[in-house]
Each structure stands twice: as C-alpha cells, then as structure tokens.
Amino acid sequence: MAKAIVGLQWGDEGKGKITDFFASGADVVVRYQGGNNAGHTVVVEGKKFKFHLLPSGGLRGKKLVIGNGVVVNPSVLIEEIEMLSGYKTVDLMVSDRANVIMPYHIVMDGIDEERLGKKKIGTTKRGIGPCYADKIARLGIRMGELVDEKLLKERLEVIFSMKEKIFAAYGLRFDMEKIFEEYASYGEKLRQYVDDTIYYLNSIIDEKEILFEGAQGFLLDVEYGTYPYVTSSNPVAGGISTGAGVSLRKVEHVVGVLKAYTTRVGAGPMPTEEKGRIGEHLAEKGGEYGTTTGRKRRCGWLDLVAAKYATIVNGIDAVAITKLDVLDGLDKVKVCTGYEYDGKTFDRFPFSIRILQDVKPIYEEFDGWDGVKGKKRYEDLPIKARKYLDFISDWLNVPIEIISTGASREDTITIQAD
Ligand code: GDP
Ligand code: IMO
Ligand code: MG
Q1: pTM (2 decimals)?
Q2: Mean of the per-residue pLDDT values for the chain?
Q3: In angstroms, what is the span from residue 291 Cα to ligand 1's centroid?
C-alpha cells in the first residue's frame, strides 16, 4: 500500500527530512509533481544532501520513481544521478510520460518574471510554469520521446512550427538542430531509466510499500494556493492520482509536514509574516535560505487558519511538526487562529489574495521555552513546548506523529498513535 508526505504550507517544511525518515520502511519512493524547483534537504552524519529531482529516499538505497506528473530537466537529472551514485547504487525509473523542461522554458520563465515587474511571482526560474503550460497546450515533449531520436525530432519540428512566432514575440530565436543534438545526448544517457512507471507502481502496490513525496506545498498548489502566486502543479495529495497513475484508495496514510512557524520564498500574501526582530530570529536560527535559489525566506508565526485548510483538503491523517527547535529561546510564541478584515473576524482561508494581503492575524500567545534542540524523546521536551504542540493538534483535529528537533536524521521523535 502507500503513504504520502505532503507540505502543508508554502514549501520548505522539511519534506526531505521526513521523507528520508519514512523511506526506511518503504520499498519505493516516488515524486509525483513539480520539478527541480524543489530543494529537499537530508542531513546524514553531518553531511547535507540536496535533492531537486530524485526522491529523497535515495540515501536509504530504495527504488526511486519519477512519476508522469513531474517535469524533468534532463541535465539536472543526470547530475543528480551522478551525485547519488557516489554514495548508493541508483535504482531509478522515470516515467515515459513525464514532460521535459526545454531551454526555451527556462528563458521564457525569466522573461515573464521581468515583464511582470513589480507583480512578479518570484519563481525559481527553472522553466516550471512554461513547461506545464506547454504540456496542457499539447506542445510538450515527453521522456519517452526524449529517448527516441526519431520521435524527438518529429516533436521538435511540430513544436517549432507552432512556437516560432511565440519565440519571436519574446524576441527569441532558438536553433532547433542544436537543441536536438543536446537533448538527444541527454536521452541517450537517460534511456536506461525511462519506462512505464504507471503499470510498474500498480503491479507492486498491493505487496510493497510505496512512499509518495510531495514537492512545494499546499499553499503553492495551482488550484488551492494563493493564485497567481503559486507554482504550476498540484502538490496536494490528490495530485498523486494524476501525477503517478495510482488510485487514491491505495494511499492509506497521508502525513502533512508542518513547520512550527511559517516561511515563504517569492512574492504573494503571507498573513503572519514578521518583518522585524522575530522574523530575523526565525530566519537566522532556522537557516531560512532557499535550498534551490539561495534566496532569503520570509518568516513569521504559524498560521493555523492556513494549516486547517490544508489539513482538510489533503485529507491529512497525521502531521509531522518540523523545526520546533528554531522556536527555542523566544519569550513568547504566537500562533494565528483567525483573521480580522473589514471589522469582521473569520477562520476560513479566503479566495482573495487582496483580502489575504490585508487581514490582521488573530493570535493565541504561548510562553516561550528552551531546550527542544536535539531532543529524541517526547518526555524530554519542555512542558511549555508540549502545550504548544497539543494546541496545534487539537486545533487541527489531527494527531502529531513526528516531531523534528534538528536537521539530522537522529533528531526525530515519533509518537505512536493510541
Ligand atoms: P523541503 O523542501 O520541505 O524538503 O525543506 P528544505 O530542505 O528546503 O528546507 C528545510 C531546511 O530545514 C533544511 O535545511 C533542513 O536540513 C532543515 N531542517 C529540517 N528539519 C529541521 C528541524 O527540525 N530543525 C532544524 N533546525 N532544521 C531542520
Ligand atoms: P520545495 O519542494 C518553496 C515557489 C517559488 C515561487 C513559486 C513559483 O523545496 O518545498 P516556480 O519556479 O515553481 O514556478 O515558482 O513557487 N516555490 C517554492 N517555494 N519551496 C519549493 O519547493 C518551491 N518551489 C517553488 O519561490 O514563489
Ligand atoms: Mg525546499
């Protein structure tokens, strides 16, 4: 059967660490959406590993699958396979249906951002949006075509005939022959990994344990997030069904990863953002600099209005609270349980980003604590920190299964369900 790990905020919740943790009990770890906009960190014996495309189960030596819903930058994938093969045997299968990020996607991502000026999304400029747009417009190239020179050439010809005017409107010209040669050589290197992952996953799902690893986070979901300040895929647990070709009924346990506070990279509303001393404390103590782009993340208090929305829509069975140690040493810890806007209070996450930009968070305040860092047993956590955790669990009406007290694998507390 299957379990899923999904981010409940704006990404960077610590999905890499939690996936690595659960991967010890899994046979196969699968990415189902996003691309190398993701940056998932796993820290083992003091060494930091960053995964952008390969699932974070790589260091456990598990079978890795890149599902059909992922967008693949082939040169990044080749680099990452090389990186991992220095530590483990790479047992990888990449969906023949996964779409390929092309050089023009990356260039156009950058130009779109420039054109948006002050209204820019703050994308990772990895070509993610333009690649998904082409997929939906039926102008994509899939991995099964990348690894077959004849099909690749055919697709490129169709796509260039359709897109040349669009390229020109961007002031761009691309040499199709050059792209063909470069991409055919990637195809050659990746051919051994490309296969039908849909039949494969369905053939093993009743006997083996599959772990799905979400990228980004629920509030960046193109459908449910703070549109248009979102990514172009579906990180929501429901995305597993379309992004990996597996029935949702087979996913029996969905774990939501919730950072003990909030971060966001890029533009868009973030009601609990703290621009002063608290924000600085969280950014510095939490090392809140992007894993992919190195950008400083915006920081603020935990937003339970947003987390509840994420919990409901993802069908969360349990949460993993990460980075609780980062709150060590604060006098007071706050958590948002409602919004105030235009003289009214409410606790539903609104559709309108204009409202979200202007809401005033309503906070519950807790006494601060010290000494969470590195703790390995629930009993050893400070009582005041446990009060904070109980409040979160009660408010969300979901049990806490994991508490992460540091970046390393060992700094993890598991709580058995009653
Ligand atoms: P992901 O994208 O959700 O996998 O998260 P990232 O890897 O981008 O960002 C999380 C960062 O926090 C990484 O640098 C992790 O090594 C680190 N991290 C994860 N869990 C903890 C924790 O419990 N405490 C601390 N201090 N750091 C953590
Ligand atoms: P992981 O998997 C945090 C954000 C970008 C931008 C928006 C759109 O590490 O949690 P895109 O390049 O996807 O078109 O950018 O989404 N974003 C992320 N923020 N963590 C991520 O991934 C992200 N992937 C994209 O900063 O605001
Ligand atoms: Mg990340």
Answers
A1: 0.98
A2: 97
A3: 9
